[in-house]
Protein backbone atom coordinates (compact mmCIF):
# COMPACT_ATOMS: atom_id res chain seq x y z
CA UNK A 1 0.00 0.00 0.00
CA UNK A 2 1.51 3.30 -1.12
CA UNK A 3 2.03 6.44 0.95
CA UNK A 4 1.32 9.50 -1.20
CA UNK A 5 1.91 13.11 -0.05
CA UNK A 6 -1.00 15.40 -0.96
CA UNK A 7 1.61 17.97 -1.99
CA UNK A 8 2.14 15.83 -5.10
CA UNK A 9 -1.42 16.79 -6.15
CA UNK A 10 -2.67 13.24 -6.76
CA UNK A 11 -6.00 12.66 -8.45
CA UNK A 12 -8.35 11.64 -5.64
CA UNK A 13 -11.46 10.77 -7.64
CA UNK A 14 -11.88 7.07 -8.27
CA UNK A 15 -13.65 5.75 -11.34
CA UNK A 16 -15.23 2.32 -10.97
CA UNK A 17 -16.14 0.31 -14.06
CA UNK A 18 -19.90 0.40 -14.55
CA UNK A 19 -20.00 -2.65 -16.77
CA UNK A 20 -18.84 -3.63 -20.25
CA UNK A 21 -20.88 -3.36 -23.39
CA UNK A 22 -21.21 -7.14 -23.40
CA UNK A 23 -22.56 -7.15 -19.85
CA UNK A 24 -25.03 -4.37 -20.61
CA UNK A 25 -26.35 -6.19 -23.67
CA UNK A 26 -26.66 -9.44 -21.71
CA UNK A 27 -28.72 -7.64 -19.08
CA UNK A 28 -30.90 -6.00 -21.74
CA UNK A 29 -31.62 -9.42 -23.22
CA UNK A 30 -32.47 -10.92 -19.82
CA UNK A 31 -34.83 -8.07 -19.00
CA UNK A 32 -36.64 -8.41 -22.31
CA UNK A 33 -37.05 -12.16 -21.97
CA UNK A 34 -38.52 -11.85 -18.48
CA UNK A 35 -40.77 -9.01 -19.61
CA UNK A 36 -42.18 -11.04 -22.49
CA UNK A 37 -41.97 -14.62 -21.17
CA UNK A 38 -42.51 -14.18 -17.43
CA UNK A 39 -42.04 -17.26 -15.25
CA UNK A 40 -40.74 -19.31 -18.18
CA UNK A 41 -37.72 -17.00 -18.42
CA UNK A 42 -37.25 -17.02 -14.65
CA UNK A 43 -37.05 -20.82 -14.63
CA UNK A 44 -34.59 -20.78 -17.53
CA UNK A 45 -32.25 -18.23 -15.93
CA UNK A 46 -32.44 -19.79 -12.47
CA UNK A 47 -31.33 -23.09 -13.99
CA UNK A 48 -28.63 -21.38 -16.09
CA UNK A 49 -27.10 -19.11 -13.44
CA UNK A 50 -27.87 -20.88 -10.14
CA UNK A 51 -27.90 -24.48 -11.30
CA UNK A 52 -31.28 -25.04 -9.65
CA UNK A 53 -34.61 -26.25 -11.01
CA UNK A 54 -37.50 -24.99 -8.90
CA UNK A 55 -41.16 -25.90 -9.11
CA UNK A 56 -42.18 -22.81 -7.15
CA UNK A 57 -40.18 -19.64 -6.60
CA UNK A 58 -42.15 -18.54 -3.58
CA UNK A 59 -40.75 -19.54 -0.20
CA UNK A 60 -43.28 -21.76 1.58
CA UNK A 61 -44.40 -21.44 5.18
CA UNK A 62 -42.68 -24.75 5.96
CA UNK A 63 -39.38 -23.43 4.57
CA UNK A 64 -39.72 -20.34 6.76
CA UNK A 65 -40.37 -22.44 9.84
CA UNK A 66 -37.45 -24.74 9.02
CA UNK A 67 -35.12 -21.74 8.72
CA UNK A 68 -36.30 -20.22 12.00
CA UNK A 69 -35.68 -23.53 13.79
CA UNK A 70 -32.18 -23.76 12.28
CA UNK A 71 -31.18 -20.44 13.85
CA UNK A 72 -30.10 -20.52 17.49
CA UNK A 73 -31.72 -18.48 20.24
CA UNK A 74 -28.52 -16.47 20.59
CA UNK A 75 -28.57 -15.63 16.89
CA UNK A 76 -32.23 -14.61 17.06
CA UNK A 77 -31.46 -12.30 19.99
CA UNK A 78 -28.68 -10.65 17.98
CA UNK A 79 -31.07 -10.05 15.09
CA UNK A 80 -33.78 -8.69 17.38
CA UNK A 81 -31.47 -6.24 19.16
CA UNK A 82 -30.15 -4.88 15.87
CA UNK A 83 -33.69 -4.62 14.46
CA UNK A 84 -34.82 -2.62 17.51
CA UNK A 85 -31.97 -0.11 17.09
CA UNK A 86 -32.57 0.29 13.37
CA UNK A 87 -36.33 0.74 13.86
CA UNK A 88 -35.77 3.39 16.52
CA UNK A 89 -33.43 5.41 14.29
CA UNK A 90 -35.67 5.27 11.23
CA UNK A 91 -38.81 6.14 13.20
CA UNK A 92 -37.25 9.58 13.74
CA UNK A 93 -37.14 10.14 9.97
CA UNK A 94 -40.87 9.72 9.43
CA UNK A 95 -42.52 12.68 7.68
CA UNK A 96 -46.14 13.73 8.06
CA UNK A 97 -48.62 15.42 5.75
CA UNK A 98 -48.86 19.16 6.49
CA UNK A 99 -51.38 21.90 5.71
CA UNK A 100 -51.10 25.67 6.08
CA UNK A 101 -53.79 28.33 5.68
CA UNK A 102 -52.97 31.86 4.49
CA UNK A 103 -54.77 35.01 5.64
CA UNK A 104 -56.60 35.26 2.28
CA UNK A 105 -58.19 31.85 2.88
CA UNK A 106 -56.10 29.83 0.43
CA UNK A 107 -54.87 26.45 1.67
CA UNK A 108 -51.52 24.94 0.73
CA UNK A 109 -49.80 21.79 1.86
CA UNK A 110 -47.99 18.56 1.15
CA UNK A 111 -49.48 15.07 1.29
CA UNK A 112 -47.04 12.29 2.16
CA UNK A 113 -48.09 8.87 0.83
CA UNK A 114 -46.17 5.58 1.16
CA UNK A 115 -45.46 3.58 -1.98
CA UNK A 116 -47.81 0.69 -2.58
CA UNK A 117 -45.08 -1.92 -3.06
CA UNK A 118 -41.30 -2.19 -2.65
CA UNK A 119 -38.94 -4.92 -3.80
CA UNK A 120 -35.83 -5.75 -1.77
CA UNK A 121 -32.93 -7.54 -3.44
CA UNK A 122 -30.77 -9.58 -1.04
CA UNK A 123 -27.52 -10.85 -2.57
CA UNK A 124 -26.13 -14.35 -2.18
CA UNK A 125 -22.70 -15.43 -3.28
CA UNK A 126 -19.77 -14.70 -0.98
CA UNK A 127 -21.82 -14.47 2.23
CA UNK A 128 -25.28 -14.27 3.80
CA UNK A 129 -26.43 -10.72 4.50
CA UNK A 130 -29.26 -10.43 7.04
CA UNK A 131 -28.13 -6.85 7.66
CA UNK A 132 -29.07 -5.96 4.08
CA UNK A 133 -32.60 -7.19 4.73
CA UNK A 134 -32.94 -5.02 7.83
CA UNK A 135 -31.56 -1.90 6.19
CA UNK A 136 -33.93 -2.14 3.23
CA UNK A 137 -37.06 -3.53 4.83
CA UNK A 138 -37.20 -1.39 7.98
CA UNK A 139 -37.32 2.04 6.30
CA UNK A 140 -39.98 0.72 3.92
CA UNK A 141 -42.06 -0.58 6.83
CA UNK A 142 -41.55 2.66 8.74
CA UNK A 143 -42.79 4.62 5.72
CA UNK A 144 -45.95 2.52 5.68
CA UNK A 145 -45.36 0.43 2.55
CA UNK A 146 -47.99 -2.33 2.69
CA UNK A 147 -46.44 -4.83 0.27
CA UNK A 148 -42.75 -5.65 0.63
CA UNK A 149 -41.31 -8.34 -1.65
CA UNK A 150 -37.93 -9.95 -1.01
CA UNK A 151 -35.93 -11.77 -3.69
CA UNK A 152 -32.66 -13.63 -3.22
CA UNK A 153 -30.78 -16.23 -5.31
CA UNK A 154 -31.26 -19.83 -4.19
CA UNK A 155 -28.45 -22.05 -2.99
CA UNK A 156 -27.65 -25.31 -4.78
CA UNK A 157 -30.16 -27.06 -2.51
CA UNK A 158 -32.92 -24.81 -3.83
CA UNK A 159 -33.31 -22.95 -0.53
CA UNK A 160 -32.21 -19.65 0.99
CA UNK A 161 -29.62 -19.36 3.76
CA UNK A 162 -31.43 -20.03 7.07
CA UNK A 163 -30.13 -16.83 8.73
CA UNK A 164 -31.36 -14.74 5.78
CA UNK A 165 -34.80 -16.32 5.79
CA UNK A 166 -35.06 -16.22 9.58
CA UNK A 167 -34.26 -12.50 9.54
CA UNK A 168 -36.98 -11.86 6.96
CA UNK A 169 -39.47 -13.80 9.08
CA UNK A 170 -38.44 -11.84 12.19
CA UNK A 171 -39.14 -8.62 10.28
CA UNK A 172 -42.53 -9.88 9.14
CA UNK A 173 -41.77 -10.10 5.42
CA UNK A 174 -44.33 -12.49 3.98
CA UNK A 175 -43.67 -12.43 0.24
CA UNK A 176 -40.25 -14.00 -0.43
CA UNK A 177 -38.98 -15.51 -3.68
CA UNK A 178 -35.98 -17.71 -4.47
CA UNK A 179 -34.77 -15.84 -7.51
CA UNK A 180 -31.72 -13.63 -8.03
CA UNK A 181 -29.67 -11.81 -10.61
CA UNK A 182 -30.87 -9.48 -13.35
CA UNK A 183 -33.88 -11.72 -13.92
CA UNK A 184 -35.09 -11.08 -10.35
CA UNK A 185 -34.86 -7.33 -10.96
CA UNK A 186 -36.85 -7.79 -14.17
CA UNK A 187 -39.54 -9.75 -12.34
CA UNK A 188 -39.89 -7.01 -9.73
CA UNK A 189 -40.05 -4.30 -12.38
CA UNK A 190 -42.33 -5.91 -14.97
CA UNK A 191 -44.08 -8.67 -13.05
CA UNK A 192 -44.57 -12.32 -14.02
CA UNK A 193 -47.33 -14.87 -13.48
CA UNK A 194 -45.92 -15.49 -9.98
CA UNK A 195 -44.43 -12.15 -8.94
CA UNK A 196 -46.53 -8.99 -9.16
CA UNK A 197 -44.57 -5.81 -10.01
CA UNK A 198 -43.45 -3.28 -7.40
CA UNK A 199 -42.94 0.48 -7.42
CA UNK A 200 -39.36 0.62 -6.17
CA UNK A 201 -36.38 -1.77 -6.06
CA UNK A 202 -33.65 -1.43 -3.43
CA UNK A 203 -30.73 -3.52 -2.27
CA UNK A 204 -27.18 -4.34 -3.38
CA UNK A 205 -26.03 -6.92 -5.91
CA UNK A 206 -23.34 -7.76 -8.44
CA UNK A 207 -22.65 -5.85 -11.66
CA UNK A 208 -25.54 -7.58 -13.46
CA UNK A 209 -27.99 -6.61 -10.73
CA UNK A 210 -26.68 -3.03 -10.76
CA UNK A 211 -27.01 -2.79 -14.54
CA UNK A 212 -30.51 -4.27 -14.41
CA UNK A 213 -31.61 -1.73 -11.81
CA UNK A 214 -30.16 1.03 -13.96
CA UNK A 215 -32.06 -0.16 -17.02
CA UNK A 216 -35.46 -0.60 -15.33
CA UNK A 217 -35.29 2.84 -13.71
CA UNK A 218 -38.23 4.79 -15.05
CA UNK A 219 -40.47 1.74 -15.07
CA UNK A 220 -39.82 1.62 -11.33
CA UNK A 221 -37.78 3.73 -8.94
CA UNK A 222 -34.48 2.43 -7.52
CA UNK A 223 -32.35 3.35 -4.52
CA UNK A 224 -28.98 3.89 -6.18
CA UNK A 225 -26.32 2.23 -8.33
CA UNK A 226 -23.99 1.02 -5.63
CA UNK A 227 -20.31 0.39 -6.33
CA UNK A 228 -17.69 -1.45 -4.26
CA UNK A 229 -17.47 -0.55 -0.59
CA UNK A 230 -15.25 2.31 0.59
CA UNK A 231 -13.82 3.64 3.85
CA UNK A 232 -11.75 6.77 4.42
CA UNK A 233 -10.10 7.37 7.78
CA UNK A 234 -9.07 10.91 8.75
CA UNK A 235 -6.48 10.87 11.53
CA UNK A 236 -4.00 13.06 13.35
CA UNK A 237 -1.12 11.98 15.57
CA UNK A 238 -3.54 10.61 18.19
CA UNK A 239 -4.76 7.87 15.84
CA UNK A 240 -3.95 4.23 16.58
CA UNK A 241 -2.48 2.29 13.70
CA UNK A 242 -3.96 -1.05 14.84
CA UNK A 243 -7.50 0.35 15.01
CA UNK A 244 -7.18 2.12 11.69
CA UNK A 245 -5.70 -0.91 9.92
CA UNK A 246 -8.47 -3.16 11.27
CA UNK A 247 -11.15 -0.78 10.01
CA UNK A 248 -9.52 -0.48 6.59
CA UNK A 249 -9.42 -4.26 6.27
CA UNK A 250 -13.06 -4.53 7.38
CA UNK A 251 -13.97 -2.89 4.07
CA UNK A 252 -11.24 -4.49 1.98
CA UNK A 253 -12.61 -7.99 2.70
CA UNK A 254 -15.94 -7.10 1.03
CA UNK A 255 -14.73 -7.11 -2.55
CA UNK A 256 -11.45 -7.13 -4.53
CA UNK A 257 -12.43 -3.66 -5.79
CA UNK A 258 -13.16 -2.20 -2.34
CA UNK A 259 -11.21 0.89 -1.33
CA UNK A 260 -9.62 1.70 2.04
CA UNK A 261 -7.85 5.06 2.43
CA UNK A 262 -6.11 6.82 5.29
CA UNK A 263 -5.65 10.59 5.21
CA UNK A 264 -3.35 11.73 8.00
CA UNK A 265 -1.27 14.67 9.13
CA UNK A 266 1.22 12.35 10.83
CA UNK A 267 3.85 10.55 8.72
CA UNK A 268 4.73 8.20 11.59
CA UNK A 269 1.11 7.04 11.78
CA UNK A 270 1.07 6.59 8.00
CA UNK A 271 4.07 4.27 8.09
CA UNK A 272 2.81 2.34 11.14
CA UNK A 273 -0.60 1.84 9.54
CA UNK A 274 0.91 0.40 6.35
CA UNK A 275 2.90 -2.10 8.42
CA UNK A 276 -0.12 -2.92 10.59
CA UNK A 277 -2.34 -3.54 7.57
CA UNK A 278 0.19 -6.01 6.21
CA UNK A 279 0.48 -7.76 9.60
CA UNK A 280 -3.27 -8.10 10.15
CA UNK A 281 -3.86 -9.13 6.55
CA UNK A 282 -1.89 -12.36 6.99
CA UNK A 283 -4.43 -13.94 9.33
CA UNK A 284 -7.62 -12.87 7.53
CA UNK A 285 -9.82 -15.73 6.25
CA UNK A 286 -10.58 -13.58 3.19
CA UNK A 287 -6.96 -12.58 2.68
CA UNK A 288 -7.04 -13.03 -1.10
CA UNK A 289 -9.96 -10.64 -1.53
CA UNK A 290 -8.69 -8.06 0.97
CA UNK A 291 -5.12 -8.17 -0.34
CA UNK A 292 -6.21 -7.30 -3.86
CA UNK A 293 -8.35 -4.43 -2.58
CA UNK A 294 -5.44 -3.12 -0.51
CA UNK A 295 -2.88 -3.47 -3.29
CA UNK A 296 -4.96 -2.04 -6.14
CA UNK A 297 -7.54 0.34 -4.68
CA UNK A 298 -6.16 1.55 -1.35
CA UNK A 299 -3.48 3.97 -0.14
CA UNK A 300 -2.38 6.44 2.52
CA UNK A 301 -2.35 10.19 1.85
CA UNK A 302 -0.22 12.45 4.03
CA UNK A 303 -1.13 16.10 4.56
CA UNK A 304 0.84 19.03 5.98
CA UNK A 305 -2.18 20.48 7.78
CA UNK A 306 -5.59 19.31 8.99
CA UNK A 307 -7.21 21.83 6.62
CA UNK A 308 -5.48 20.12 3.70
CA UNK A 309 -6.52 16.70 5.00
CA UNK A 310 -10.18 17.75 5.38
CA UNK A 311 -10.19 19.17 1.85
CA UNK A 312 -8.96 15.80 0.56
CA UNK A 313 -11.62 13.94 2.53
CA UNK A 314 -14.34 16.15 1.07
CA UNK A 315 -13.02 15.51 -2.43
CA UNK A 316 -13.03 11.76 -1.83
CA UNK A 317 -16.70 11.94 -0.69
CA UNK A 318 -16.48 8.46 0.80
CA UNK A 319 -19.22 5.99 1.56
CA UNK A 320 -17.87 5.62 5.12
CA UNK A 321 -15.73 8.28 6.83
CA UNK A 322 -14.06 7.68 10.19
CA UNK A 323 -12.55 10.58 12.14
CA UNK A 324 -9.72 9.55 14.48
CA UNK A 325 -8.53 12.89 15.84
CA UNK A 326 -8.08 14.51 19.25
CA UNK A 327 -11.30 16.52 18.77
CA UNK A 328 -13.48 14.80 16.14
CA UNK A 329 -16.58 16.89 16.90
CA UNK A 330 -14.62 20.01 15.96
CA UNK A 331 -13.89 18.43 12.57
CA UNK A 332 -17.51 17.42 11.91
CA UNK A 333 -18.79 20.88 10.78
CA UNK A 334 -16.05 20.96 8.13
CA UNK A 335 -17.13 17.67 6.54
CA UNK A 336 -19.38 18.31 3.54
CA UNK A 337 -19.37 15.01 1.66
CA UNK A 338 -19.67 11.53 3.21
CA UNK A 339 -22.31 8.82 3.32
CA UNK A 340 -21.88 8.04 7.02
CA UNK A 341 -19.54 9.76 9.48
CA UNK A 342 -18.06 7.83 12.42
CA UNK A 343 -16.66 10.03 15.21
CA UNK A 344 -13.99 8.80 17.59
CA UNK A 345 -11.88 5.68 17.81
CA UNK A 346 -14.65 3.57 19.39
CA UNK A 347 -16.94 4.18 16.40
CA UNK A 348 -15.66 1.43 14.15
CA UNK A 349 -17.39 1.21 10.76
CA UNK A 350 -18.96 -2.23 11.47
CA UNK A 351 -20.88 -0.59 14.35
CA UNK A 352 -22.84 1.25 11.66
CA UNK A 353 -23.04 -1.74 9.34
CA UNK A 354 -24.89 -3.89 11.81
CA UNK A 355 -26.11 -2.34 14.99
CA UNK A 356 -26.13 1.38 15.74
CA UNK A 357 -29.28 2.16 13.76
CA UNK A 358 -28.45 4.46 10.80
CA UNK A 359 -28.85 2.88 7.39
CA UNK A 360 -25.83 1.21 5.82
CA UNK A 361 -27.14 1.60 2.26
CA UNK A 362 -24.87 4.51 1.38
CA UNK A 363 -23.69 6.42 -1.70
CA UNK A 364 -20.41 5.14 -3.19
CA UNK A 365 -17.93 6.16 -5.85
CA UNK A 366 -18.00 9.85 -4.89
CA UNK A 367 -21.79 10.17 -5.20
CA UNK A 368 -21.98 11.34 -1.57
CA UNK A 369 -21.31 14.75 -3.16
CA UNK A 370 -24.98 14.83 -4.15
CA UNK A 371 -26.83 11.90 -2.59
CA UNK A 372 -27.78 10.49 0.80
CA UNK A 373 -28.16 7.19 2.66
CA UNK A 374 -31.34 5.18 2.13
CA UNK A 375 -34.06 6.99 4.09
CA UNK A 376 -37.66 6.44 5.14
CA UNK A 377 -38.68 9.21 2.73
CA UNK A 378 -37.26 7.15 -0.15
CA UNK A 379 -40.29 4.87 0.27
CA UNK A 380 -42.80 7.71 0.12
CA UNK A 381 -43.95 10.17 -2.47
CA UNK A 382 -45.24 13.66 -1.96
CA UNK A 383 -48.21 15.44 -3.52
CA UNK A 384 -48.65 19.21 -3.34
CA UNK A 385 -52.01 20.50 -2.08
CA UNK A 386 -53.44 23.72 -3.53
CA UNK A 387 -56.86 25.13 -2.62
CA UNK A 388 -57.03 28.77 -3.73
CA UNK A 389 -59.69 31.01 -2.21
CA UNK A 390 -61.87 33.37 -4.26
CA UNK A 391 -60.18 36.27 -2.47
CA UNK A 392 -56.70 35.05 -3.38
CA UNK A 393 -57.64 34.59 -7.03
CA UNK A 394 -59.17 38.07 -7.11
CA UNK A 395 -55.96 39.54 -5.68
CA UNK A 396 -53.52 37.63 -7.89
CA UNK A 397 -55.44 36.51 -10.98
CA UNK A 398 -54.23 39.41 -13.14
CA UNK A 399 -50.60 38.69 -12.23
CA UNK A 400 -50.99 34.97 -12.89
CA UNK A 401 -52.54 35.62 -16.31
CA UNK A 402 -49.75 38.07 -17.15
CA UNK A 403 -47.15 35.47 -16.17
CA UNK A 404 -48.81 32.93 -18.48
CA UNK A 405 -48.55 35.41 -21.35
CA UNK A 406 -44.83 35.86 -20.62
CA UNK A 407 -44.55 32.23 -21.74
CA UNK A 408 -46.95 32.70 -24.65
CA UNK A 409 -49.51 30.36 -23.11
CA UNK A 410 -52.77 32.17 -23.81
CA UNK A 411 -55.03 29.29 -22.72
CA UNK A 412 -53.35 29.34 -19.30
CA UNK A 413 -54.12 33.07 -18.98
CA UNK A 414 -57.74 32.65 -20.09
CA UNK A 415 -58.27 29.76 -17.62
CA UNK A 416 -57.57 32.23 -14.83
CA UNK A 417 -59.41 35.18 -16.36
CA UNK A 418 -62.60 33.20 -17.01
CA UNK A 419 -62.99 32.92 -13.25
CA UNK A 420 -63.16 36.70 -13.01
CA UNK A 421 -59.58 37.60 -12.19
CA UNK A 422 -59.80 40.80 -10.13
CA UNK A 423 -63.44 41.23 -11.06
CA UNK A 424 -66.66 39.69 -9.82
CA UNK A 425 -66.19 35.97 -9.17
CA UNK A 426 -69.89 35.22 -8.64
TrEMBL record:
<feature type="binding site">
    <location>
        <position position="254"/>
    </location>
    <ligand>
        <name>substrate</name>
    </ligand>
</feature>
<feature type="active site" description="Proton acceptor">
    <location>
        <position position="319"/>
    </location>
</feature>
<dbReference type="GO" id="GO:0005829">
    <property type="term" value="C:cytosol"/>
</dbReference>
<comment type="pathway">
    <text>Amino-acid biosynthesis; L-histidine biosynthesis; L-histidine from 5-phospho-alpha-D-ribose 1-diphosphate: step 9/9.</text>
</comment>
<feature type="binding site">
    <location>
        <position position="251"/>
    </location>
    <ligand>
        <name>Zn(2+)</name>
    </ligand>
</feature>
<dbReference type="InterPro" id="IPR001692">
    <property type="entry name" value="Histidinol_DH_CS"/>
</dbReference>
<feature type="binding site">
    <location>
        <position position="254"/>
    </location>
    <ligand>
        <name>Zn(2+)</name>
    </ligand>
</feature>
<feature type="binding site">
    <location>
        <position position="353"/>
    </location>
    <ligand>
        <name>substrate</name>
    </ligand>
</feature>
<feature type="binding site">
    <location>
        <position position="412"/>
    </location>
    <ligand>
        <name>substrate</name>
    </ligand>
</feature>
<dbReference type="GO" id="GO:0000105">
    <property type="term" value="P:L-histidine biosynthetic process"/>
</dbReference>
<dbReference type="InterPro" id="IPR022695">
    <property type="entry name" value="Histidinol_DH_monofunct"/>
</dbReference>
<keyword id="KW-0028">Amino-acid biosynthesis</keyword>
<dbReference type="InterPro" id="IPR012131">
    <property type="entry name" value="Hstdl_DH"/>
</dbReference>
<dbReference type="GO" id="GO:0004399">
    <property type="term" value="F:histidinol dehydrogenase activity"/>
</dbReference>
<dbReference type="Pfam" id="PF00815">
    <property type="entry name" value="Histidinol_dh"/>
</dbReference>
<keyword id="KW-0560">Oxidoreductase</keyword>
<keyword id="KW-0368">Histidine biosynthesis</keyword>
<comment type="similarity">
    <text>Belongs to the histidinol dehydrogenase family.</text>
</comment>
<keyword id="KW-0520">NAD</keyword>
<keyword id="KW-0479">Metal-binding</keyword>
<dbReference type="GO" id="GO:0051287">
    <property type="term" value="F:NAD binding"/>
</dbReference>
<feature type="binding site">
    <location>
        <position position="320"/>
    </location>
    <ligand>
        <name>substrate</name>
    </ligand>
</feature>
<feature type="region of interest" description="Disordered">
    <location>
        <begin position="1"/>
        <end position="23"/>
    </location>
</feature>
<feature type="binding site">
    <location>
        <position position="353"/>
    </location>
    <ligand>
        <name>Zn(2+)</name>
    </ligand>
</feature>
<protein>
    <recommendedName>
        <fullName>Histidinol dehydrogenase</fullName>
        <ecNumber>1.1.1.23</ecNumber>
    </recommendedName>
</protein>
<feature type="binding site">
    <location>
        <position position="229"/>
    </location>
    <ligand>
        <name>substrate</name>
    </ligand>
</feature>
<keyword id="KW-0862">Zinc</keyword>
<comment type="function">
    <text>Catalyzes the sequential NAD-dependent oxidations of L-histidinol to L-histidinaldehyde and then to L-histidine.</text>
</comment>
<dbReference type="InterPro" id="IPR016161">
    <property type="entry name" value="Ald_DH/histidinol_DH"/>
</dbReference>
<feature type="binding site">
    <location>
        <position position="412"/>
    </location>
    <ligand>
        <name>Zn(2+)</name>
    </ligand>
</feature>
<feature type="binding site">
    <location>
        <position position="407"/>
    </location>
    <ligand>
        <name>substrate</name>
    </ligand>
</feature>
<feature type="binding site">
    <location>
        <position position="251"/>
    </location>
    <ligand>
        <name>substrate</name>
    </ligand>
</feature>
<dbReference type="GO" id="GO:0008270">
    <property type="term" value="F:zinc ion binding"/>
</dbReference>
<feature type="active site" description="Proton acceptor">
    <location>
        <position position="320"/>
    </location>
</feature>
Amino acid sequence: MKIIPLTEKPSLRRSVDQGTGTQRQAVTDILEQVRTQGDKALHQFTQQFDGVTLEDFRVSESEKQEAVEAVSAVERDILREAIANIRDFHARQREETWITTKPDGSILGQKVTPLDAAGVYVPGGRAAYPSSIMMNVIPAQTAGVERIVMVSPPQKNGKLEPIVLACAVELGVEEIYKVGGAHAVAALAYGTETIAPVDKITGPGNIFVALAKQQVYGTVDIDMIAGPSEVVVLADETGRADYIAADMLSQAEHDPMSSAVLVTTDTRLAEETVREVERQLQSLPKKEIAEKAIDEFSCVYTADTMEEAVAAVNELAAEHLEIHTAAPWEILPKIRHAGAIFLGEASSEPVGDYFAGPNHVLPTNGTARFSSPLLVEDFTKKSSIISYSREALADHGETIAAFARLENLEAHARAVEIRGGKGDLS
